[in-house]
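Quick one:
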Amino acid sequence: MTNRSTTSSGPQCGGLAYVEDNDADAMMIETAAQQSDCVYDLTRYSSIAGFLDHLDAAGTGETVRPEAVLLDINLPDGSGFEVLNMIRQSYSPEQLPVAVFSGGESNADLHRSYDLGANLYLNKPMEFPEYRRRIAGICGFFARLTRSREVG
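Output:
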């Protein structure tokens, strides 16, 4: 399991866990998050096992549950769909929002993600400026959900 944290100076939207095995994509996510004005406590999990261990520990109060999850679909130790299904067995989309951020452009993946309870589905772009815009959009989406939970 690889964990890295980055912090930016923008408004806090809570801890964001992301499950991403590809180092190049992880660097793009971290750089884009640093350049956006949203993310605090960005934590990477390069495997499903590492992320699920953390989520289990959060469920027993041993550690803090993330505010939101950014989830890749194609992972070396399983499918992001399996992870999404496991998350939804314990947490509603309001309790723990999940954005699927996939390298594929399959309509089947998009529909399956929403059927399993994803709050958001976006494709990973090839160019960094668009990558940054999408990460900023995801962070803004999560921040709005967090604020609406606090108000409601």
